[in-house]
Amino acid sequence: MLTRRIIPCLDIKNGRTVKGVNFEGLRDAGDPVELAKRYSEEGADELVFLDITATLEKRKTLKDLVVKIAREINIPFTVGGGIKTIDEIEELLKSGADKVSLNSSIVKNPDLINEGSRNFGAQAIVAAVDAKKTGNSWHVFIKGGTEDTGMDALEWMQEVERRGAGEILLTSMDRDGTKAGFDLDLLEKVNKLVRIPVIASGGAGNIQHCVDAVLKADADAVLAASIFHFREVEIKDLKNEMLKNGIEVRPYLN
Amino acid sequence: MIAIIKYKAGNTASVANALERLEARYFFAETPEELESARAVIFPGVGHAGAAMESLKEKGVDEWLKNTKKPVLGICVGMQLMYENSSEGDTAGLGIIPGSLKKFDESKAKVPHMGWNKLKSTGQHPILKNLIEKNYLYFVHSYYAPVSEHTLATCNYINNFSAIVAKDNFIGVQFHPEKSGSVGSMILQNFLDLVYSPKAANALDK
Prior knowledge:
The structure holds two protein chains of two kinds. By secondary structure, chain A is α/β, with parallel strands linked by helices. Chain A contains eleven helices and twelve strands. Chain A has helices spanning 32-41, 54-57, 62-72, 86-94, 104-108, 111-120, 153-163, 184-193, 207-215, 226-229, 235-244; strands at 5-13, 16-21, 24-30, 47-51, 77-80, 99-102, 125-134, 137-142, 147-152, 167-172, 198-201, 221-224. Chain A has an eight-stranded parallel beta barrel with strand order 1-4-5-6-7-10-11-12, surrounded by seven helices. Chain A is globular. Chain B has a single domain, classed as Rossmann fold (3-Layer(aba) Sandwich), CATH 3.40.50.880. The radius of gyration of chain B is 15 Å and the shape is globular. By secondary structure, chain B is of the alpha/beta class.
């Protein structure tokens, strides 16, 4: 049986790992390559790197970082942040990334999903969706959470699936950085509407939150940042607790 | 040296990095002449089978592969192209291993099969050395090779399918050993041992 995945996420700014609260107020969390190496040795199933400076400042430093990461780690990883064109996707995949995460660019140009999926396979295309509760529904936000598109997040996630995205990285902006737990309501709704894997992101504060995301909302993967960066939760302990709860995971020190 | 077949849309960097971590010497090959100078060949595969096959045909690498006696390790799409047909893009494969690929039934579970899964050995082969049933490997694929007489290990997702296959000098793995942590490195090391040990190479010939 396929395991649920534990995915540490590294937000990168100016070459350093940072972590903010509700997309603002950044705290330094170290060298991304060193952290990545640590996580792969500690049993992470996958890693996600998001260059959070990329969208706002139009930087293209991801490639160099991808090359360095790919040399050091032997588990799959995704990169994202300001990727806009099919050529950029190709360059990052050829540099050693397994998947690219597309966010603002696919809202403006949804055909990029189709084109990327057709050229590199659905498995390489991750649709990142930043969702925020607005009234009775969730809206899609872009540009690092600064712009409300007014689009319904649940409808958008069904569209990215139709267009060929291989999985969805769903971040609850209401929960991101709060450590108050994942938005289980949102996760559960999405998981009933789409068949591609959904990575739960935003709000992980302890082990129980991660267990709940899987048991209560059927998340295929759980993504977190600061609880891992600052060693509040060890991946090994999280996996052991998941196993105790009957969740299949790749055991630590496989 | 190990030749890594380089072709359009394939993620060749990951395999090269994995070989570097194992301190194995390798080079990238695009033509039959380059491949002929190698001791063994790794045929990586990411992405679309149709695009990969077209890329092989451009320089005649498809014909070379069909006829070579050198050890060849096909990874993911590289393994799938060893079969007669891929339903992905209706691509005709190399036909080295009999049979056709099938697409996972999307009505039963999420497709692609993506993530870490376990294997069950069904045969004996140097590539399986030290592999135990508790080991997990990383898979990403929507099409699978049915279980056949050439299957060395199976995996289960929706149904049983071939995770490791071998026929003559050809070995195929559906998972990505270059992305499967220490267990994946072990499988690659098994391939290297087999390539560089005459005894293991003889076992492969029979």
